[in-house]
Amino acid sequence: MNDHVSPTPLEDRLRATLAAAAPADTGVEAGLDDLRSRLDGVTVVPLRRSAPPARGPRRRMQLTAAAVVMALAAIGAGLVLGSGGGSEERVDADRPATTRSVSDTPPVRPEDAAWYLPVDLPPGWTLSGISVDYRDVEGSGACPCRTTAWTSPDKTLVTMVGTSTANATFAGLEDLAGELEPVALGGGIEGRIGQVRIPGAEEGTGAWVVGWIEDGAGRSINLAGQSKDAAVAVAKRLAVDLDGPPADGWTVLSDVTRPGGVGSFDTVDIGFITPSGARVGYQLAPSGFGDLPFGYVTPQRHQPEGQGQPLLRFDFPARSFEEQDLDTPAVTVLAGTWVGADVVLGASNQEASDVQTDSPAFDEMLTLAASLQPASAEEWAAFLDTLPGGQASLGERVPRTGAVADLVRRPGEDLGD
Amino acid sequence: MVRLATLLVGDPAVAEEVVQDAFVRLHHHLDRTERPGAYLRTTVVNLCRNQRRHQAVVAKHPPPRPLDAPPPELPSELSPVWLALDTLPQRQRQALVLRFYLDLPDPEIAELLGARPGTVRSLISRGLATLQEVLKP
User: Fold this and answer.
1) B12-32: average pLDDT
2) pLDDT of A29
3) CB A253 within 8 A of CB A151
4) Which residue of A has its CA nearest to B43?
5) What is the model's pLDDT at position A150?
6) Residue to substitute from A10, A18, A398, interface B, most B β-carbons within 10 A
């Protein structure tokens, strides 16, 4: 396993130290119980904001929030919304009717959509934390790169990835499918095709991948549940017209371009504890860098009432990975490419790492999705200022100004080790 | 997985959050990986590296932090080793944890750290040399 025939005394000591230091019980559950006990009898007042007025002069948003209590818990700097002045509800005189339909939501202007914040969450929601995740961009030289997803009337999904360079096109497909066969796509374009077994799915469930290189750029498509001939037909059509559709009657589900020249970026996660005790949160990423989980599951368009921007709902089935002795239950993820940011919503509960679609937490995730509305940089800063200790209470990397779009860095601007 | 994360970031509470986050990310990529266990481990290692970066930045500008985790209770002969481990650059620490806690071979450590096997051997060698120096009586 390693290069040493027999370990040195230091190595023995190091091994013993790590074994002894690895926790048997993290104590996190005890911390969560402590947090819950502190919430007993604490009235949680949701964030309330005045809704945006009709489009016209730049609107002025007023963010009102109840008094906030810093929760001291082993889970980290939890933030609890508590009743500050005795009143359970603060009403902004300018606030319109609480029910808002999509048609009432004014179009989002890019300059207004620096961030997204929840509006009018019902009572019982607790802000659990705001954190930032540093992400390296692998193969940044291949971008700008474009991912397009289409769906057919019978819900077949095809995704196409187009990169600016072709270096890793076939190597990437070989990683997925193993050996590739050559296939002629017409117009002098020679592609390669391979078959992929969908991980964790029933035996015999597969997908076809086809790749080709055109004018020095790489293209690849992924088509699940169809024949090899169908995959070749799709590839031939897209080789002629990259804008698609791959066949008559198909419609675009998503069309995202990731810009080039980015070496790393940050995502911001805003998490809540829901009335049912689940963890529900959303992640904001710079446009083109969101974790949109396109694979072999065909998403559905999902438009909750009051949410003016598009979402896709991915319903992943339960999976069983025999070799790894790993079972994952069914889980739903919501994702969308919105003005100014990509957004992904997910949930987990205390017992499992994911939330099944018939659980209360699933409905709570839909509630959060409906509530997210565009917020300016000033509104984001004002939101952070309402927290106990203000912005100083947050981690250094949580952005205080600017926009989600600013969370990208060029190569060489990384933090470094 | 929580134990691994704890050894990498040094804080059990943060480790729990990291692992939970890794599970949620796993679902985003289930359709694209044949080895979800390996993907999970890689995700945990990467998220821990991000956490250490964050901790390094916070250390330069330290706000009051009431939530610093106390060091684990260890026998007296092991405690200095744990403290010395915390002084290492994070990649050396990661390499040592993956070798001496998980007993992973060089190629697998290399894959997790995004390095070459030769670099892994160098990280481990330098890490042990630093520990040796720090632990000198």
Assistant:
1) 64
2) 40
3) yes
4) A135
5) 93
6) A18
Is residue B104's pLDDT more than 60?
yes
Candidate from B21, B28, B61 with C-beta closest to A293: B28
- By Cβ distance, the residue of B17, B28, B50 closest to A333 is B28
Set of chain A residues whose Cβ sits within 8 Å of the Cβ of B29: 293, 295
Is the pLDDT reported for residue B28 higher than 60? Answer: no
Which residues of A fall within a CB distance of 8 Å from B83?
Answer: none
A393 contacts B58? CB cut-off 8 A:
no
Q: Do B7 and A21 touch (CB under 8 A)?
A: yes
Query: Cα distance from A60 to chain B (closest Cα, Å)?
Result: 32
Instruction: Count CB pairs under 8 A between chains A and B.
Output: 167
B47 to chain A, any CB pair closer than 8 A? The answer is: yes
Of the pLDDT bands very low, low, confident and very high (cuts 50, 70, 90), residue B67 is very low
Q: Which residues of chain A have pLDDT under 70?
A: 1-5, 23-107, 139-140, 199-205, 321-329, 347-360, 388-389, 414-417
* Residue-wise pLDDT tens digits, B42-64: 777 777 766 665 555 555 444 44
Tens-place pLDDT, residues A205-253 = 688 999 999 888 999 999 988 899 999 999 999 998 888 899 999 999 9
Determine contact: A14 vs chain B, CB below 8 A. yes
Per-residue confidence (pLDDT) for residue A370, from 0 to 100:
93
Query: Given B30, B56, B61, which is nearest A316 (Cβ)?
Result: B30
